[in-house]
Design goal:
Largest sheet: 4 strands, antiparallel
CATH superfamily of the largest domain: Winged helix-like DNA-binding domain superfamily/Winged helix DNA-binding domain
Number of domains: 2
Number of strands: 7
Length: 134
């Protein structure tokens, strides 16, 4: 049993298990999985709601339909508001490592998001990167 946990297992089942216990374990894992999925698909920060599953963003009750890369960039920044994301991290996580984009691509997308949501919405850390500020 110890080896299973050390290998990264969350739980395991012994051969002689009662059906009620098995059902309870399955239901507990399904609840946990559903909570993780829901928490990852919608981000709510003050009056900003980002719904990743439906690609919808609303701020102060106003719905915004963003182009995919703007949406992905906003979702990334909102996923950890305390973190300053470097330009390299943004390029890797939003555009991917196999796509070659221009040097000012991030700047253009940040500018468009600022135009839609307000100038102080995304903070620039000079020489480092960007973070979401609400």
């Amino acid at each position: 049993q110890l080896a299973g946990y050390q290998a990264g297992a969350n739980d395991f089942i012994v051969k002689l298990i009662k059906p009620k216990i098995l059902r309870s374990k399955i239901n507990a894992l399904l609840k946990l999985t559903n909570q993780e999925f829901q928490s990852n698909s919608v981000i709510e920060i003050k009056d900003l709601i980002i719904d990743k599953e439906n690609f919808r963003v609303s701020k102060s009750g106003q719905l915004f339909l963003l182009p995919k890369k703007e949406f992905d960039l906003l979702y990334l920044l909102a996923s950890n508001t305390d973190k300053v994301f470097t330009r390299e991290e943004i390029l890797e996580k939003v555009w991917g490592s196999e796509v070659v984009v221009g040097e000012r691509t991030i700047d253009v997308h940040i500018r468009r998001l600022r135009e839609k949501f307000g100038l102080n919405f995304i903070q620039t850390s000079k020489g480092v990167g960007y973070r979401l500020v609400l």
